[in-house]
Amino acid sequence: MSQIYCLPERRNVPIQENQTVLEALLANDIPHAHACGGNAYCSTCRVMILEGIESCSAPTAVERSLNKKLEFPVHVRLACQTRVQGDIAIRRMVTDAQDLDIVERQSAEGAVGGKQQVALLMVGVRGDGTLDEDNFYYDLIYILSRYFLLARRVLRPFGGKEQASFGNDLLVKFSLDEGPEPALRAVWAALELQRELEGLNAHLHQLSYSPLRLTMGIHYGIGVVMGMGLGRTQERAQHVVGRLVDEVQRIELAGRKTGSSLLLSESAWELVRDRVVSPRNFNVVFGGDRDRECRVFEVTAVQGEAPVVLAAEEPTESRSLTSRLAGFMKRLGEIRVL
Questions:
Q1: Which of 107, 117, 124, 323 could hold 215 in an S-S bridge, CB 3.0 to 4.6 Å?
Q2: What one-character DSSP code corresponds to residue 319?
Q3: Domain 113-318 of CATH type 3.40.50.720
């Protein structure tokens, strides 16, 4: 008779050939979740196979269907569909109410995530001094609102997907889902944003504000991507997490120290080296379990045709200010009525 070593209980459980993993766990008083009754519908009985994956039966048709929807890796199996012919070690993946909340969200939204080849662009914005010290809070809000509107309008046509904002910084993902050559699109987007910032700075100068400056870093590699939807009614987003994010932050930080507007990691630079002007390079230390020194490359220009993959948003200037004000007042009146 085969044995299942089960975590987090740290127990050995016997399993017969005609039993599923779920049946064996329940028969031995391990309270394994199975909301759908073991019919491969809910995925709450999911387990991670830590050892002995070769002893597990092949996924059934219904398990394969659910695996495809949720994009499970091969070592995540449904206990209700898995039989074994040998000893295995597993970890139960739904052990409390919080785990169940995660499963419920994943079931509603789709894939749990996975690995993806991506280019990440980190954009930091600064004033001549520290923005929140040089300006009253309303001025700070106004300046950054103008900047973030500009940034999103510029990045979108290149397929940039905003991941997160860290204070004044933006993290933007470029992937093969949006089009080819994500690293090149990230470079074009960064340099276009730098160019468009000149117009915003001219506007801020008219209002007696200090100009804004950008420091940007681009990194390319395999990132861990996870669904970050906040609810069933909101659009689900795929966000990169983990080491790749930490490293692109360090590249952007190196730009501040070296006075460079745009720095690329070596992996990103290798993909675009024939298309860019790169006058300088520097060493950057990437932290972690072991600090390692990496080369980064300054980029000041890019050659060729811009790889735009999405239609640009219609500029707000296409409608007269009078027309837009009239529309605003109409919407305001409707809100008041409600």
A1: 124
A2: S
A3: no
How many helices and strands, by DSSP H and E, does the chain display? Answer: 9, 15
pLDDT in tens, 159-189: 999 887 777 889 999 998 888 999 999 999 9
Question: What's the start-to-end Cα distance of the chain, in Å?
Answer: 69
User: Which is it for the CA torsion 240, 242, 244, 246, positive or negative?
Assistant: positive
Residue 216's contacts (CB-CB under 8 Å, 6 or more residues apart) are 121, 122, 123, 124, 190, 193, 194, 252, 255, 261, 262, 263
Domains 2-109 and 113-318 share a fold: no
Three-state DSSP at 122 gives: strand
- Phi, psi angle pair for 201, to nearest 5°: -65, -35
Is 123:197 a contact under the CB 8 Å cutoff?
Answer: no
Give the CATH class of 2-109: alpha beta
Domains in the chain: boundaries = 2-109, 113-318
